[in-house]
C-alpha cells in the first residue's frame, strides 16, 4: 500500500485529523490575546496636555512630570516606545476617538460625562484646593467666600466645572456674582492670581503641593480640600478592552517593582492618593 493511499477509511481518518487540527488552531487563536491596533507600529502614542504640573508640564521645551515618567515605565513593560502628542486638553478625547493617539495620558479626571466617551484605567485619586496670594489679603477661607470674587481655572478642566457650580450657588443664593476666568493652563491661572487679576484659583492637591513648595513667597493654600477621592486615569477608546487590559497589567508591574511609589515621592504627591 502506497503512502498516498486513497482507501475510504484512510480518507476519513485524514479528514478527522484535519478537522481536529483546525479546531485546535481556532482554540489557540481565541486563547491568545488580540494585539492592540497601534497608531504607529512599535510605539505607544499618547495624547497629553502638558499644562498640569506636577503631572505633565514642560521644562525648557521638554516634557516632564509624573505622568511622563509613569508612561515611560508602562511602555517599557509593553516593550513599546512612548510617543507623546502634546495638544490642548479639550482636544484629547477627539484625538483618541479619531485614532490620532492610542491612549490619553494626561491626569484626566474620571467623571460620568467622560466615561460615556472613553474607558478609563484608574491609577490615582486626587482632590482640589484653592490658592491665593501670600498673606491672603482678601481673607478667603473657603469656597463660600468667593461670591463677588474672581476665580481662575483651566479651560475645560474639572476646576472649571467646580467653579461654575460655585457661581451658580452664589446666583441661587442671591449673593454677588462669582466671576469665572478661564485660562489655557494652570500656570496662566497662577499668574493671574499673582498679578492680582484673579483673587484665587482652583488647583489639584498635587499641584498645590508643588506650587506652595516652590513659591511659598508668592502663594498659599486656603480652605479645606474638596472633592478628594476623585480618580484620575489613562483613557482608552470606548470598548477597547484589549488596550485597557494591557495598560492595567503594565501598571500592576510598575507598582510591583516599586516605580509607582518612587515616582509619587519624586513629584511630592500625597501618599494617600495612591490606589495601590
TrEMBL record:
Which InterPro entries does this UniProt record tie to the protein?
Answer: Solute-binding_3/MltF_N
SMART domains membership: PBPb
Solute-binding protein family 3/N-terminal domain residues are 43-271
The reply on keyword Signal is yes
Q: Does the keyword Signal apply?
A: yes
- Ranges in coiled-coil conformation: none
> Which keywords fit this entry according to its UniProt record?
Signal
Residues making up the signal peptide according to the UniProt record: 1-31
PANTHER family reported for this sequence: ARGININE-BINDING EXTRACELLULAR PROTEIN ARTP (PTHR35936:SF17), MEMBRANE-BOUND LYTIC MUREIN TRANSGLYCOSYLASE F (PTHR35936)
Official protein name in the record:
Amino acid ABC transporter
Name the species this protein comes from.
Answer: Phreatobacter cathodiphilus
Amino acid at each position: 500500500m502506497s503512502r498516498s493511499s486513497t482507501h475510504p477509511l484512510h480518507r476519513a481518518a485524514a479528514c478527522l485529523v484535519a478537522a481536529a487540527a483546525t479546531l485546535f488552531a481556532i482554540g489557540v487563536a481565541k486563547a491568545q490575546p488580540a494585539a492592540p491596533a497601534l497608531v504607529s507600529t512599535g510605539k505607544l502614542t499618547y495624547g497629553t496636555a502638558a499644562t498640569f504640573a506636577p503631572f505633565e508640564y514642560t521644562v525648557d521645551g521638554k516634557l516632564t512630570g509624573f505622568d511622563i515618567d509613569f508612561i515611560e515605565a508602562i511602555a517599557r513593560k509593553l516593550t513599546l516606545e512612548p510617543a507623546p502628542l502634546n495638544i490642548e486638553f479639550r482636544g484629547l478625547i477627539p484625538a483618541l476617538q479619531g485614532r490620532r493617539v492610542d491612549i490619553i495620558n494626561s491626569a484626566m479626571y474620571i467623571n460620568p460625562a467622560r466615561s460615556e466617551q472613553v474607558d478609563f484605567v484608574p491609577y490615582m485619586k486626587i482632590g482640589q484646593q484653592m490658592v491665593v496670594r501670600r498673606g491672603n489679603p482678601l481673607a478667603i477661607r473657603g469656597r463660600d467666600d468667593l461670591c463677588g470674587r474672581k476665580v481662575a481655572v483651566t479651560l475645560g478642566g474639572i476646576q472649571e466645572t467646580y467653579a461654575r457650580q460655585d457661581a451658580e450657588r452664589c446666583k441661587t443664593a442671591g449673593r454677588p456674582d462669582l466671576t469665572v476666568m478661564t485660562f489655557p493652563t494652570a500656570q496662566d491661572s497662577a499668574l493671574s492670581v499673582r498679578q492680582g487679576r484673579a483673587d484665587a484659583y482652583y488647583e489639584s492637591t498635587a499641584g498645590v503641593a508643588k506650587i506652595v513648595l516652590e513659591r511659598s513667597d508668592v502663594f498659599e493654600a486656603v480652605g479645606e480640600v474638596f472633592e478628594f477621592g476623585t480618580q484620575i486615569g489613562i483613557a482608552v477608546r470606548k470598548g477597547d478592552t484589549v488596550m485597557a487590559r494591557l495598560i492595567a497589567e503594565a501598571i500592576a508591574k510598575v507598582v510591583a517593582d516599586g516605580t509607582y511609589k518612587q515616582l509619587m515621592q519624586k513629584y511630592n504627591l500625597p501618599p494617600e492618593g495612591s490606589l495601590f
